[in-house]
Task: inverse folding
C-alpha cells in the first residue's frame, strides 16, 4: 500500500483535529440568501470557487509554499504567507486562515514533527499545509489534490447540513467535481506569480454577510 496515498488521506481527513469542519467559507450565507438551494446550484457554486478561487489563488500559493518548505527558503515562506493573508478579503476568511494554521501548527508541534522557530509567528493554513505535506513526504501533486479534496468534502458537508442536501445528491456532486481537481491543480502549477489572485465577488459578499447572519451553524 502506498505511503503517499495514506499520507494524503491523513491530511485530507475531516478527522484531522484542526477544526476545518467548523467553517463554511460563505456557503452558509449563500444558502440562506437562496443563491445555492439544490444540487445543480451547489455544483455550480463549488465548480466556480474551485476554478476561480482555489485554482487562481490557493493552489498556486500552496505550490510555491511546498517548494519553499522543501528548499528551506524562509524568505519565500514568509512572502507567500503574507500574500495569503493579504488576499483574504473578509474578517471571517482571515480568521479561518489564522485558526486553521494555528491548529495545524499546534498539532505538528505536539507530534514533535516541526521546529517552531522556523515558522512565521502567524502561519497561514496554506503554509502549514505545505509544512505538513513536507513532514509526511507528500509529493507536491498529491498535496494539492489532498488540499482540494479536503475543501470539497467540507463544502459538501456544509450543504448537507444547511440546504439540506441528501446523501445521494452529495455523492453525485463529489463524483462530478472529482475530475475537476486534476484540471485545476494542473493549471495552478502553470500560473505565473503576477497572475495569482481570485476574483469572486459573490463569495466575498456571502462571507461578509455571514459575519452578521442571525442564525448560523458555522464560524465562517
Result:
Amino acid at each position: 500500500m502506498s505511503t503517499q496515498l495514506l499520507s494524503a488521506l491523513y491530511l485530507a481527513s475531516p478527522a484531522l483535529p484542526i477544526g476545518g469542519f467548523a467553517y463554511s467559507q460563505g456557503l452558509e450565507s449563500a444558502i440562506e440568501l437562496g443563491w445555492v438551494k439544490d444540487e445543480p446550484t451547489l455544483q455550480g457554486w463549488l465548480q466556480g470557487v474551485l476554478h476561480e478561487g482555489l485554482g487562481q489563488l490557493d493552489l498556486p500559493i500552496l505550490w510555491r509554499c511546498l517548494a519553499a518548505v522543501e528548499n528551506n527558503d524562509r524568505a519565500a515562506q514568509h512572502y507567500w504567507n503574507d500574500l495569503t493573508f493579504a488576499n483574504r478579503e473578509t474578517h471571517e476568511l482571515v480568521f479561518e486562515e489564522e485558526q486553521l494554521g494555528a491548529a495545524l501548527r499546534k498539532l505538528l508541534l505536539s507530534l514533535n514533527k516541526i521546529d517552531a522557530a522556523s515558522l512565521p509567528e502567524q502561519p497561514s493554513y496554506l503554509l502549514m499545509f505545505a509544512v505538513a505535506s513536507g513532514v509526511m513526504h507528500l509529493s507536491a501533486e498529491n498535496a494539492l489534490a489532498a488540499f482540494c479534496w479536503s475543501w470539497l468534502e467540507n463544502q459538501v458537508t456544509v450543504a448537507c447540513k444547511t440546504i439540506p442536501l441528501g446523501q445521494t445528491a452529495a455523492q453525485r456532486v463529489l463524483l462530478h467535481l472529482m475530475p475537476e481537481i486534476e484540471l485545476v491543480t494542473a493549471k495552478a502549477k502553470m500560473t505565473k506569480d503576477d497572475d495569482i489572485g481570485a476574483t469572486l465577488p459573490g463569495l466575498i459578499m456571502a462571507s461578509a454577510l455571514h459575519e452578521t447572519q442571525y442564525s448560523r451553524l458555522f464560524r465562517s
